[in-house]
């Protein structure tokens, strides 16, 4: 008899590894944390079976599926599942609705003398559970926002807090005009799934206050869930105040030093060229807000810094470029936004003071 499992909360709390046997095109649209895509059918095979289902019905579609995934192809896919199970003994299995694909995969694994439990209702049921939790999550905690000017080190400090959730990290974005990373952002579905994983886990740990970075409605290409758009802008705001010289160093490391290393680790013919083109594209995106004169000034400063790095390998001249961006672009914009929400500011202080304040109210 097929073994089924529907204690979705335990999957979240235990970070249970999952085998997703849906086709790659389905997986890319959205999946779950700790899930690996080991499909029972490729995109092409799934497409053929789908056409057969529409034209000839379910029985013929199943028959075609078994024909397409047989012999060496079947062996390779079963072996991939078994290898993952060897590395992750508590693995669970799912397809879209917990129906034929995961049941067949379960049977094939059983033929090899192994057992695996599949999710009752599959992806659809687990996703519904997560959406319900997301919709009702604000009943389980009080939100607190950590704000501060660009380069103040908000993300650095968030990572030191046990009751914090790093939304930029979940979205794989740095949350600014220059925040795009070379790795693709998470999908909207993945962002929501990852977010509720963290919230359920933090609630289980007993935290009644959760700290989020002060974000807008969007984090790059993903957007905040509707329920959070309603509650987060009204949450108390703690402002992290950091001296300009420290902000310059933090931003320099993020935009230049660490960013260039990331490009070097990717498959680019000229990593340095790819990085500077992306920076120039980012400056082009903020040109309208900067205005023509300031855009020309910041571009000239950047070109000088590029030339210096090419000549000597030094990052020093980028500090002038970073400071210009902070003073002329980021700070006026941030100060304007904070002024409109000044009634929500509960505390201001440096990193040590902010940590002590947050600990005092948890």
From TrEMBL:
- PROSITE patterns attached to this UniProt entry: RHODANESE_3 (PS50206)
Ranges for domain Rhodanese: 12-135
Return the protein name: tRNA 2-selenouridine(34) synthase MnmH
Q: Which Pfam families match?
A: AAA_SelU (PF26341), Rhodanese (PF00581)
Give coiled-coil spans as residue ranges: none
This entry's Gene Ontology molecular function terms read:
tRNA 2-selenouridine synthase activity
Alphabetically list the UniProt keywords.
Selenium
Q: Which InterPro entries match?
A: AAA_SelU, Rhodanese-like_dom, Rhodanese-like_dom_sf, SelU
| Record-linked Gene3D superfamilies | Rhodanese-like domain
Return the HAMAP family for the record: tRNA_sel_U_synth
